[in-house]
From TrEMBL:
InterPro entries (alphabetical): Glyas_Bleomycin-R_OHBP_Dase (IPR029068), Glyas_Fos-R_dOase_dom (IPR004360), Glyoxalase_1_CS (IPR018146), VOC_core (IPR037523), Xdiol_ring_cleave_dOase_1/2 (IPR000486)
Gene3D superfamilies tied to this protein: 2,3-Dihydroxybiphenyl 1,2-Dioxygenase, domain 1
Record protein name field: VOC family protein
GO molecular function term, any single one: dioxygenase activity
Pfam families membership: Glyoxalase
Domain annotation VOC: ranges: 11-128, 181-294
CDD domains, per the entry: VOC_BsCatE_like_C
Keyword annotations: Aromatic hydrocarbons catabolism, Dioxygenase, Iron, Metal-binding, Oxidoreductase
Family: Belongs to the extradiol ring-cleavage dioxygenase family.
Cofactor(s) demanded: Fe(2+)
PROSITE patterns: EXTRADIOL_DIOXYGENAS, GLYOXALASE_I_1, VOC
Tree of life domain: Bacteria
Signal peptide per UniProt: none
């Protein structure tokens, strides 16, 4: 039966970034953020954990640098399965590239640390608190942004074994747990009402929170799989080609779910394409590419 809500098992896939310096960006995500280099195909590198691709870097030096006031990526949020795993990645980053740190936040549902990669793409490193500690009121999850002392977080959660690993042998990938994923993706858009029409009314996400200039949406009761804000981009239109966000992947449980969503998008006048892997591609109102697969 057709439904306008995404299945509960929907999750985020990887994020593709178009970059100028493929070697430097690969080294950052591999050696600093401790992702595995899974595959290299000419001008493209896949990084993730195990066989799960979290970030795909595509060498596109022909593209202009992306502008700050435009639609695109706000951050890719890399979810760690425990505070200790998060502390390990945070320590690696703090030792290697502390100048790229941009902030931290206790969001009640999670604890997060923010940074930019070497080409200015936002990254969030976070872990979730247990779901039974989340507070829901009238279908909305309670979130906030409270200060976290990064050094205090490291003192509380970085194990001696992880400290030795980070300081002496960052190539020992076996020391890191496998449970690292893209937990959510946060986009810059021009208008939150338009974002709601596309991501909720068309794609089928549920609204979980709204803040001034920001919309948070999810499937299956997660605090958010995607977010859209206008904090740096209010009123902007279709993005022009440039470095930065290339694609966001959303993974549905079955091919039937993808077909159902595709039919709904077409019925609402959204152009839908199929790529070489038979995944479905569509653009949001600002030209941010979303790819759907099972």
């Amino acid at each position: 039966m057709s439904t306008s809500t995404l299945p509960e098992a929907t999750r985020m896939g990887g994020v593709a970034l178009d970059v100028a310096d493929l070697d430097a960006m690969t080294a950052f995500y591999r050696d600093v953020l401790l992702l595995d280099q899974i595959a290299e195909r000419g001008d493209q590198v896949d990084l993730g954990r195990g066989s799960d691709v979290l970030v795909t870097l595509r060498h596109r030096p022909d593209l202009p640098r992306g502008e700050r006031r435009t639609a695109g990526l706000f951050h890719t949020a890399i979810l760690h399965d425990s505070p200790g795993a998060l502390a390990t990645t945070l320590a690696s980053f703090a030792l290697a590239r502390p100048e790229l740190f941009t902030g931290s936040g206790d969001h009640l549902v999670s604890e997060a640390f923010y940074l930019d990669d070497p080409e200015g793409n936002g990254v969030e490193l976070y872990h979730d608190r247990p779901r039974d500690q989340w507070t829901w009121v009238d279908g909305r999850v309670r979130m906030d942004t409270l200060y976290i002392d990064p050094n205090g977080f490291l003192r509380d959660h970085l194990t001696p074994q992880a400290r030795d690993f980070v300081e002496t042998d960052p190539g020992a990938r076996a020391a890191l747990p496998a449970g690292t994923t893209v937990g959510h993706v946060h986009l810059k858009v021009g208008d939150t009402a338009q974002a709601l029409d596309f991501y909720v009314d068309t794609l089928g996400f549920d609204v979980t929170a709204e803040l001034p200039g920001a919309l948070f949406v999810s499937a299956g009761g997660y605090h958010h799989h995607m977010a859209m804000n206008t904090w740096q981009s209010e009123g902007v239109g279709l993005r022009t080609p440039g470095m930065g966000l290339g694609r966001v992947d959303v993974v549905l449980p079955t091919d039937a779910d993808v077909a159902d969503l595709t039919a709904r998008a077409r019925a609402r006048g959204v152009q839908v394409r199929t790529d070489a892997s038979s995944a479905v591609e569509l653009d949001d109102p600002w030209g941010n590419l979303v790819r759907l697969s099972a």
